[in-house]
Every structure is written in structure tokens, then in C-alpha cells.
Design goal:
This is YaaL family protein. Helices cover about 90% and strands about 0% of the residues. It has one domain. It has four helices and no strands. The protein is elongated. With about 80 residues, the protein is mostly helical. The longest helix has 29 residues. The two termini are about 25 Å apart.
């Protein structure tokens, strides 16, 4: 997780200078972390779905995938609204 924050600071510093890097709001960093975590959850649910053979597990992974995708959409909307 430490590397994630370092990468965010370096990216911000390279785009707009060091002063802007200090002004990154912590809630945006947290949202970015949650978005990345949700991407991993989507990938995991998709991989589990592709490997499942039991109909009950297939249904379970479909629900997991849909829930993760909805969470991802929600987090993106929230991130974009706070970024402005």
C-alpha cells in the first residue's frame, strides 16, 4: 500500500508540480485505492466464474461480478464528482 501512495504523489508532482502534490485530498486517494481494490474483485469474480462448474457457484459468481461492477460504477461517479 505504501507504493500506491508514493505513485500517486509522483504522478501528481509530475503533472502539476510539487505544490499540487501536497494538495491532493486524502479522500481522493482513498477512493482511488477503493477503485483499484474493486477492479481486483471484478477480476477475481470473473476468474471464479470461468472456473466454476456447479450451478450454484455459477449463480454466486454472477451475483458477485454484478455487485462488484455496480460498486465500481458508483466509485467512479463519486471520484469524478469530487475531482471537480
Amino acid at each position: 500500500m505504501f507504493d500506491f501512495f508514493k505513485a500517486v504523489r509522483e504522478t501528481a508532482a509530475s503533472r502539476t508540480g510539487a505544490a499540487a502534490a501536497r494538495r491532493i485530498r486524502p479522500e481522493l486517494i482513498h477512493l482511488k485505492f477503493e477503485i483499484d481494490r474493486t477492479k481486483c474483485a471484478i477480476d477475481a469474480a470473473r476468474n471464479h466464474f470461468e472456473q466454476a462448474v456447479d450451478p450454484t457457484l455459477i449463480d454466486c459468481y454472477i451475483y458477485e461480478l454484478n455487485a462488484a461492477q455496480l460498486r465500481y460504477q458508483f466509485l467512479l461517479r463519486k471520484f469524478k464528482s469530487q475531482e471537480d
